[in-house]
Amino acid sequence: MTVYDWPSDDASGSQNSDSSTTPDGGSRPATLVPRSQLRPAGSALAFVPFANWEPERSYLGEPTIRYNVEWKLFAKNRGQAGESELDIVISPRQLWNHILRPKVTDACANKPWKEEETKLVLSVSDRKTSNITKRFPKLDVDWSFVAKQLKDWSKFLGDGKKITVAVTFYYLCVDTGKPGRRGATANQEAELEVRTAGLGRAACIRKVYTLMRCPGRPCMKGDYCWQSEGKYYSLRPYYVRMLADHLQAGKPLNGHDDVPDNFRRLVLDDERQREERE
Hints:
Residues 1-35 are annotated as: Disordered. This protein has helices spanning 35-38, 92-108, 143-153, 183-196, 201-211, 237-248, 261-277, and strands at residues 17-18, 31-32, 67-75, 78-88, 113-124, 132-137, 163-173, 225-228, 231-234. It is an alpha+beta fold. The protein has two domains: 50-54 and 62-173, Ubiquitin-like (UB roll), CATH 3.10.20; 198-277, no CATH class.
């Protein structure tokens, strides 16, 4: 599938041809005009569907929304990580799920940090258009809002303007529970390490299934699910693996109300995407 086959508003109806007659009465072959040149003025551009995205491909000149992302991670009042992501053509939510979130997670691995807030600054290189600044708690960015704004600004791309999304992730340092500062916390962590030391993978998975059994009457999600705020979510295999990793790392898991934040975000993001597709 090419960019011109996407089922979106930016696709024109059919490819036009330009045939003419030769002096001897014959006909010249039809000349095909690239569909990108036939896109009606003012029609909306679209993001490249993630399933069709080719990361190494240049989408220059094709009818896609293109934007740059500058992201930074701050902890201990200074920048700890960050990169430029240029010429992005997939949606902001897919960019977060498949590119940014893994990089942010890696940057925070084994660090005594926790999410505080995320700041977004959306801008376009048009002097008459003001920047938009938004703040979100922890990593709970409204990516649908970002996508809508980029679509609204996509009209500037035809004039050679550039759209930029600046993202700053702010993290707080947390008490590591070292002896001499908060001995009780250190003792609790030491006790937990002893309790979970040597716990095998299979045991962790069995414990996850035990803890995540449906707490009420059997629901449409099956015998195992995650319940949160009155809603039930299917316990997919990769959710189980994430919780098993959590247990195997020696961290506590005491049931539906005690899941880690990254598990909660992943399940809710998956649910939002499912609802959007429907």
